[in-house]
Amino acid sequence: MPINWFPGHMSSARRDIRKGMSGVNLVIEVLDARIPFSGTNPLVAELRGDKPCIQVLNKSDLADPGVTAAWLADIAKDPLRRAVSHSLDEKPLLPTLLRLSRDMVREDPVRPMIAMIVGIPNVGKSTLINSLSNRKIAKVANNPAITRSQQRVKVNRRLVLLDTPGFLWPRLSPEACGYRLAVTGAISDRVVDPEDIAVFAAAFLRERYPDAVRRAYDLDALPDGDVAMIEAIGRKRGCLIKGGVVDLTRASERLLRDLRAGVLGRISLETPADFA
Ligand SMILES: Nc1nc2c(ncn2[C@@H]2O[C@H](COP(=O)(O)OP(=O)(O)OP(=O)(O)O)[C@@H](O)[C@H]2O)c(=O)[nH]1
Ligand SMILES: [Mg+2]
Hints:
By secondary structure, the chain is α/β, with parallel strands linked by helices. The protein has ten helices and eight strands.
């Protein structure tokens, strides 16, 4: 099933970013470290044009560290971009961002540098703004579409940040990219079928991280078949309806919730080699 989610506020977010871009010195594109390819919005590249860009591979605490290192090496091949991995429990990112921006943005003795933070929904843009400015100024929640309009945040007299609403792009393709966005929580759960997304996740986990599933759910062996695996997880977690039958919807929601919360360990959903 192809996934599409481009509600009206995303269309206006794109319009506002286009309008504001001319006054911006630096674009900070926040990517989800678990899906640096599927979470790269092609519209962002189009809107930023040749503006300097730093990509932050965020939520790296949830991603497989070896795979994140491979992504950073892959992005480093592009002379037009800089990249750094980050998570909210790491040391402050501000000194690294300032260091990386120094050779990309010419310093203005009078005006502050204006950095626009862009990225897909729920990737941690507002959290990053709060940590960079050391204030609880931007609204944060674990749902996509929390920030609904641009917000200027002055960090100091040298740096101003612009928080923007996360937005996707119409027609998410290939289909697997849409699924990966949904697995990480970038797409509202209201517009997708949890069983459909969980079957995609189960197939991926069986192939790449079978031991993580066995460990997390105390399973001796993984059952054959993706739905059978979700059922086994549901049984272990008590997602049952009358007669001991597994409630597949609840079991699917449970698997997705656990995966997003890191219960299965640090898992990346794609590697550079997948796109070679
Ligand atoms: N595990 C983990 N969670 C994070 C990290 N950064 C942010 N989050 C969580 O991700 C969720 C979304 O964070 P926000 O900062 O609201 O995301 P956003 O990109 O501003 O989202 P929109 O405004 O909806 O586009 C919140 O529950 C944050 O606590 C991180 O580094 N690691
Ligand atoms: Mg936000």
